[in-house]
Write a structure and sequence with these properties.
Rossmann fold, 12 strands, elongated, alpha/beta
């Protein structure tokens, strides 16, 4: 069995020690690096039964031997079209359970930074200007926080919010599944009706056709002027033009964005200069620890795959996640 491992600037190489561990524990398989996700050649992976990485989607149809693609990401949106695969019943898994901790810490950082106007204070620090800025600030304590999506990331966000004394309302497709870390679970179909309650809206949803442009002008019009939105899902879940207008007109108080539409965000794009927007280049998941978690998940799945056991983190092609 040939297993190919790909990597890129986000999903870095497994360490030599990690790769050696796989080779020692699984001596009957051939495991090799086959280059960068974006520059890998078809010849490098043509014989692979298993790929760990994100090969160019256009290449997958030519991989006649591919039985299982394991993604290093939690999102699977570029790979959920079955027509991409030569095998009519492709096996696709993802690295859910890897990113919840760092991304949830990022979310809390965005909430505190935007609520207390740290960006304005930092600008004054850079110019040596001791100035007390009397802009409106907000407590997270006693606020209403809507968390859209209660997967690994949304769950970890709720876990960290538990110490802030706020009311957390979680949204998922099936509200009948209980969740011990939220005050109330509501169906995602009702999130618009809940927006007038929100002091914070945290977007942790996967990128699917169902979630595309889920939040636009109508939704921003329902929010409080003090509302802050943080998006760590996919950029296209929020209508970018509507977001820019909502920020610049003061319809909402701020936005923390680790994902944008388009992405990468062009240098001259007006979102860069939108009022009270704090933007990072899709880096919320990346500390030194997730790579270890990704390796542990892949290692567990690989052992299960070889022994014929049931896998986890399987992507549902119909739902897209």
């Amino acid at each position: 069995m040939k297993i190919s491992v790909l990597y890129d600037k986000y999903f870095l190489k497994l360490t030599a020690e990690a790769l050696e561990t796989l080779k020692v524990e699984l001596p009957d398989v051939t495991i090799s690096y086959c280059g960068n996700n974006d520059s890998v050649c078809l010849e490098d992976v043509i014989e692979s039964e298993v790929i760990f990485g994100k090969p160019p989607p256009a290449m997958i149809k030519d991989l006649k031997n591919l039985k299982w693609l394991h993604l290093p990401s939690a999102g699977a949106d570029p790979y959920v079209d079955k027509s991409l695969y030569a095998d009519p019943l492709p096996l696709l898994t993802k690295s859910s359970g890897t990113f919840g901790i760092p991304i949830s810490e990022y979310v809390l950082g965005m909430m505190v930074t935007l609520s207390h106007n740290f960006v304005s204070h930092h600008k004054n620090q850079l110019s040596g200007d001791w100035r007390q800025i009397w802009l409106e600030t907000y407590d997270i304590f006693d606020s209403n926080v809507l968390v859209l999506g209660l997967g690994d990331i949304g769950t970890e966000v709720c876990r960290r919010l538990s110490g802030f004394g706020c009311r957390v309302i979680g949204f998922r497709n099936d509200p009948n599944v209980p969740h011990e870390l939220v005050d109330e679970v509501r169906p995602l179909s009702q999130f618009r009706d809940s927006l007038p309650e929100a002091d914070y809206v945290i977007v942790c949803l996967p990128g699917t056709e169902e979630t595309r442009s889920l939040i636009g002008r109508e939704e921003f019009g329902l929010m409080k002027k003090r509302a802050i939105i943080v998006n760590v899902g996919r950029g296209y879940i929020i209508d970018t033009d509507a977001l820019i207008d909502a920020l610049n007109s003061g319809k909402i108080a701020g936005a923390g964005l680790d994902v944008t539409e388009p992405e990468p965000l062009p240098k001259e794009h007006p979102l860069w200069n939108a009022k009270n927007a704090l933007i990072t280049p899709h880096v919320s998941a990346f500390t030194s620890v997730p790579a270890q978690r990704r390796f542990a998940i892949f290692k567990d799945l690989l052992k299960r795959y070889i022994s014929g056991q049931e896998l986890f983190n399987i992507v549902d092609f119909k739902s897209g996640y």
